[in-house]
Specification:
This protein is α/β, with parallel strands linked by helices. The protein has one domain: Alpha-Beta Complex (Adenylosuccinate Synthetase, Chain A, domain 3). It is built from 4 helices and 10 strands.
């Protein structure tokens, strides 16, 4: 593994999950339904709806650390174009205790409630954007805040399902 100098992790701009298990940021409302519909969050074999929720920085930071990520490719940013406010879970509260690190025991995770940071959303259609710098300021702020919280550069941003809809980004 010492010969590998780039480890790129792929993450959605929100979270989805198949099956049961703890999911602190899961949305059981019209916002979650909208993410499912716009994001096409249905199982490819069963057609079953995936569970969706706001981005979980605690889990993403943990995944970045254990996998040794050197950069992140953020996908499905376009799905969030339809929300007035975006939320990012920056920590968990569990039985009165604040967790900024991913819990080692699943039973703790079941009791976790997300601690959110809210960011302003955008309503512009971003699917035709060809340069990261041309994204709405709110979209760039969202991407850059994720990068700051996770501590790993985001080097590409997906704004649609096609290959040409992947923007290359040079972190500051």
């Amino acid at each position: 593994p010492r010969m590998i100098d780039r480890v790129i992790g792929v993450a959605k701009a929100y979270i989805s999950r198949v099956g049961t298990g703890p999911f602190p940021t899961e949305l059981h409302d019209e916002i979650g339904d909208k993410m499912i519909e716009i994001g096409g969050e249905f199982g490819t074999v069963t057609g079953r709806r995936r569970r969706c929720g706001w981005l979980d920085i605690v889990a993403l930071r943990y995944a970045a650390r254990v996998n040794g990520l050197t950069e992140i490719a953020l996908t499905k940013l376009d799905v969030l174009s339809h929300f007035e406010t975006l939320r990012i879970a920056t920590a968990y509260d569990s039985l009165g205790e604040r967790h900024t690190e991913f819990p080692r025991q699943q039973r703790v995770l079941y009791n976790c409630l997300p601690v959110y940071e809210d960011l302003e959303g955008w309503s512009a259609d971003i699917s035709g954007v060809t340069d990261y710098r041309d994204l709405p300021e709110e979209a760039r702020t969202y991407v850059e805040r994720i990068e700051e919280l996770v501590g790993v550069p985001i080097t590409s941003v997906g704004i649609g399902p096609g290959r040409p809809e992947t923007l290359t980004r040079t972190p500051a």
